[in-house]
Amino acid sequence: MSRVWTVIHVAAHLGACAHDEASHGPIARADRESSRPVLLQVGRELRREAREVGVSPHQVSLLVAIKYQPGIGVRELAAREKISAPAMSNHVDRLERDGLVHRRPSDTDKRRVGLTLTTEGSRVLRRVRSRRTAWLATRLRGLTEQQLAAIDAAIEPLSEIL
């Protein structure tokens, strides 16, 4: 994975990670306290890029999940996102109304409906990715080789906590 996309992936997920400070000790707590504001700000900026395309960060998350698991059901998606099935159904209704996803009956189980991205849903994800990549690449270009090496060194341990 490229440096830009690795940073985007890590930043997007770290904002949602909660940790029990008591189990990590004072050094880890200090590291988290100094990195947390930066990681949260990067996450906010990346979420802002999604909004510029006209979708919420939560909608992007759902579209990505559907992209990588075409045919996923509403209940499965709700469990993955840790929300109730009725709440997820409302989210999917909006995505469908906006022309971003299709509900497709299962070929094997007529009671089951799977979700797939529409052409427009795929286009929206490409635009979000493009905007996020451009935002981050612009900022990374302004860093020195030492700073880039420090980011590269941090990627693996940060990725491990996701």
Quick structural summary:
With 162 residues, this protein is mostly helical. Helix content is 70%, strand content 6%.
Give a structural overview.
- The chain is mainly alpha-helical and 162 residues long.
- It has a single domain (3-160), classed as Arc Repressor Mutant, subunit A.
- Helices cover 70% and strands 6% of the residues.
- The chain has a two-stranded antiparallel ribbon.
- It starts with a helix and ends with a helix.
- Mean pLDDT is 83; it is low at 14-27.
Topology:
Layout: H1 3-14, H2 25-53, H3 57-68, H4 74-81, H5 85-97, E1 101-105, E2 113-117, H6 119-141, H7 145-160
Query: Which outline best applies?
Result: elongated
**Largest sheet features:** 2 strands, antiparallel
Radius of gyration, rounded?
A: 18 Å
CATH superfamily: Winged helix-like DNA-binding domain superfamily/Winged helix DNA-binding domain
Low-confidence parts lasting 5 or more residues at pLDDT below 50? 14-27
Number of domains: 1
Written as H for each helix and E for each strand, in order along the chain, the element string is: HHHHHEEHH
Strand order of the largest sheet: 1-2
Q: SS-based structural class?
A: mainly alpha
Strand content: 5-15%
List keywords for this structure.
single chain; 162 residues; mainly alpha; Arc Repressor Mutant, subunit A; 70% helix; elongated
